[in-house]
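#struct-pred

JT: dropping the chains for the assembly here, can someone run the whole complex?
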Amino acid sequence: MPANTAKNIVKKVQERKVLKGRIIFSGKCEGTALVSKEPISFYGSLDLKTGVFTEKKHELFGRSVKGSILVFPCGKGSTVGSYILYRLKKNNAAPQGIINSECEPIVAVGAIISEIPAVDRIDITKIKSGNKIKIEGGTISIESEIEKEGKKGKGQKG
Amino acid sequence: MVFLTKEEEAMLSGREGHAAKKSMEIIVALAKIFGAEKLIGISSAQVSGVSYKNVGDEGLEFLRVLSKDGKARVSSYLNPAGMDLENWRDFGISESFAKKQLEVIEVFKKLGIVPTCTCAPYLVADIPKFGQHLAWGESSAVAVANSIFGARTNRESGISALASALTGKTAYYGYHLDENRKPTLTVEVEAHLAGEDDFGALGYHVGKIVKSGVPYFRLKKKTATVDRLRSLAAALASSGSVALFHVEGFTPEAKIRGFEAGKMEKISFGQEELDSAKRELSDGAEPDLVCVGCPHASLEEIGKIAKLLLGKKVKKEFWICCSRSMMKAAEVAGYAKTIEDAGAKFACDTCMVVCPIEELGYRTIATNSAKASNYSRNLNGLKVCYGPLERCVSAAVEGKW
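RK: done, full complex below.
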């Protein structure tokens, strides 16, 4: 049997954060965060059938918003963007939830007509792509895996 | 917190039906975002998002759901559609597009919204009153209503204007308030603006600089007319996102409130700036389509075209965009016959921005509209020959720009 050694191991720990924001459209959902540091123009940037970003210059190019909790500073561009969110929802390719730093009309109207839970006035720097997110009304729960260093105790196998 | 009256609460609760509820949800959310303390009643709504090109099948479905119990509560009018609703075949529009576009119009009619299909409702529907609150969603019409009439509206989106039509309300923020209607930038116009194309070039240049601010124009040469200011409005609203401007000595609020030009940031617009703007608006060599009427042509403009076309025949496809009502007025005036005898066409209910022109095979257009030039180049991938009305008509007749 291998000798016990007190060596540093890296453990994965679940960390939970709760943030409170302003309700744009009230609802409940959970999913995986897809985060963009850039604003998003729904008109002209996405494939309507798959929810995949087609705008080459965008940070999220090639990623799909389908089923995600989409986190971004704000919307921009044409007001037809509100209809794009609605079209994505009808095609089952829309995000499950939307989190903004500061919501503007295109996304607000889009979320309301598509009935996608949306919250703003959130510090989006606290959310990383891959985090598990729950939205309930104006409350965001974030579960992330972080790595913590810890020593093994006696009697534990390596 | 947004204060709501009992009537507004009733609509939001769903007691007045699904369409009113959804519409109120939209208006209340916008009120929150814009920091409005309350809502106000409006006199009319101008609904954009009419072209099938923009709303698509899903937009059509969304409208259908609303039309189950939705009804306009105030006078409400429509923006241009994607095609001439009666003569679409003459323009090369496909049967499949036409079928869908007509369905969109039917749903709006069911909602009680009048299919004026024009970006200039002030010419054929309600005339805005000074100080009157509106919810209009056509950027050039917004700038005209606010600036030339002194009425009050924000730049609504198609859906928010529709929500206002179905509730009779809008959020009380932005241009509904006195304090937001003051100018933010003075423009000293030294250049001689000889026609609507020059006013459009001014708007194109200033729009980019002022963005969503409120420009105050001081014209050295007093050549402003209502039609020329409409061109200015359309250009400002499309190259920038201007909803309101003032012209010293001409527009009502400038005359009544007397803004002090001295205290604001100032820019100049001289001959150099004018020539440079017109060069930027023009990148085509020879047009295959001549198109005027952006904003939609007034009776006076149509009369000018008739005079220029009298006894002549066009060699190039030539469209005059206007509302159906205006075309009928042109028939009564005798202008329509002259224009049609020359071989030119009225393109009613639509315009070169929302009609899928590039799909009809055109590559270069000639126009006198800065807004049309901007959108044609950036949105529709066309080349543009930019010049005054006289040159556009001459290009159609001679076959050369």
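JT: nice. Residues 29 and 135 of chain A are 5 Å apart (CA to CA). Residues 81-90 of chain A form the longest helix (10 residues).
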